[in-house]
Design a protein that fits this description.
single chain, 145 residues, alpha+beta, 60s Ribosomal Protein L30, Chain: A, four-stranded mixed beta sheet, two-stranded antiparallel ribbon, 30% helix, globular
């Protein structure tokens, strides 16, 4: 069974989550703004999040919760004026997304496996589409390489 969540707020890059101030790590303004947008999103999606928490929480013994992320950005974010690709490192957005999602479904992100992390173009609002599904734990001998 898959659980799909739309309009997850676009996370800041991992490089923009924390700042150092007086030798202490503090959350940046961008990260705090994301967390506020995330709390609103979580409230709007609480029923579906509860269903996912119930489903995955019972099946974690021999399975990972695979997290596929589709980072939806508009043309202006993805490309510069000359048509070249802008710096938008999708992998830098994984940690903040996993941390927030783990909080929302009350599952430690140590149970997550990183699936697809793909940038996709959208004409709509920039966001992340998240697909959760069970993924059995495998041995290297089981890999089809």
């Amino acid at each position: 069974m898959k659980h799909i969540f739309y309009d997850f707020p676009l996370t800041p890059s991992a490089n923009g989550l924390y700042a150092t101030y007086n030798n202490r790590r503090i959350k940046t303004k961008k990260y705090n703004e994301f967390l506020m947008r995330f709390d609103v999103w979580r409230m709007k999606n609480r029923k579906a999040l509860k269903a996912a928490a119930d489903y995955f929480g019972d099946k974690l013994g021999d399975n990972w919760t695979q997290v596929n992320m589709y980072i939806c950005v508009n043309h202006k974010t993805a490309f510069n004026l000359k048509g070249g690709v802008k710096a938008l490192d999708a992998s830098n957005r994984v940690k903040a997304c996993h941390d927030a999602l783990a909080r929302a479904i009350d599952i430690d992100d140590k149970h997550f496996s990183i699936g697809i992390t793909e940038k996709v173009l959208t004409k709509g609002k920039e966001s992340i589409i998240i697909e959760l599904k069970l993924s059995p734990m495998r041995n290297t001998e089981e890999l089809d390489l």
